[in-house]
Specification:
Elements lengths: L3 E6 L4 H12 L3 E7 L11 H5 L8 E2 L2 H5 L4 E4 L3 H14 L2 E4 L6 H10 L4 E4 L5 H16 L5 E8 L9 H14 L7 E2 L14 E7 L5 E9 L2 E9 L3 H13 L6 E3 L1 H4 L4
Parallel strand pairs: 1-2, 1-4, 2-3, 4-5, 5-6, 6-12, 7-9, 8-9
Antiparallel strand pairs: 7-10, 10-11
Helix pairs in contact: 1-8, 4-5, 6-7
Length: 269
């Protein structure tokens, strides 16, 4: 089978550099393009040199159309506006688009859904096997426990993270809501300050901590009468997200257009 020609979006960032190195090392794949935002100091530099694997003859560009012209797939941990643009291009080119971008709005997600009519789009708030297993457990525990158990999701990330709650926390919140058979948007508490009154029964609460260099930590708390259940995942190396994205990309090469998740990739759904 021919090598999968992959474009790395956000190739100048930490995740982009990790992805470049791993895709370059994968026998089934080749780095065919590298994208970065306009004005980045990395534009024009060799993606392999940035990733620490030596020159690979692929320069970072701010031209997404040119980058995807002869590609089979895009792996994208960039920003919402860029992700929406790339989803539209993936639809036009009929290629795979793996999305690890977080902070997407409902309107962004609707546009991605539309693009998935013509492209294989695999999107997840977290690409790790462990987090997706955790989401499955959260769904089951939530379905098993009654409304007398309050659900709180606590997430911690490095000081440079720009969105909150994290995409993973929202994914876990959706899993808890699905277990309860409720709409997360209608039963979500995103912040507390001042005299807030008693906790509303049935709400799913979120708390976001930021500091240092924490890769990612998520705990789902089920707090009931006289007992508490806590399910936790700790990420210790961001490379685990890149490995998951690569696995998703390879999984998608023989799939029909559609909007898939990591649960599909890992066989949980």
């Amino acid at each position: 089978m021919a090598e999968l020609k992959v474009v790395i979006a956000g190739a100048g960032g930490r995740m982009g550099r990790t992805l470049t190195a791993l895709v370059h090392a994968a026998p089934e794949m080749v780095v065919a393009g590298a994208l970065e935002r306009a004005g980045s100091d990395a534009i024009g530099r060799d993606a392999g040199e940035l990733a620490g694997v030596g020159r690979i003859g692929v320069a970072l560009t701010q031209d997404p159309l040119g980058a995807v012209l002869h590609a089979d797939a895009i792996i994208d941990f960039s920003a919402p506006a860029s992700t929406v643009e790339l989803a539209a291009l993936a639809a036009q080119a009929r290629i795979i688009h793996v999305i690890g971008t977080t902070g997407l709005s409902p309107d962004d997600i609707a546009k991605i859904h539309a693009a998935a009519r013509h492209a294989v789009i695999i999107r997840s708030g977290n690409m790790s096997l462990g987090v997706n297993l955790l989401a499955g457990l959260v769904r089951k525990v939530s379905a098993s426990l009654g409304p007398e158990f309050d659900i709180e999701i606590v997430e911690t990330h490095h000081r440079m993270k720009v969105d909150a709650p994290s995409g993973t926390a929202l994914m876990l919140g959706e899993a808890a809501a699905q277990g309860r058979g409720i709409d997360l948007a209608q039963h979500s508490q995103r912040g507390r300050d001042g005299i807030t009154g008693p906790r509303k029964v049935g709400d799913i609460g979120f708390a976001s901590l930021r500091g240092g260099t924490v890769v990612g930590e998520h705990t789902v708390v089920f707090a009931g009468p006289s007992e508490r259940i806590e399910l936790t995942h700790r990420a210790e190396d961001r490379a685990l997200f890149a490995h998951g994205a690569i696995r998703a990309c390879l999984w998608g090469r023989d799939k029909k257009p559609g909007h898939y998740s990591m649960a599909n990739v890992l066989g949980y759904d």
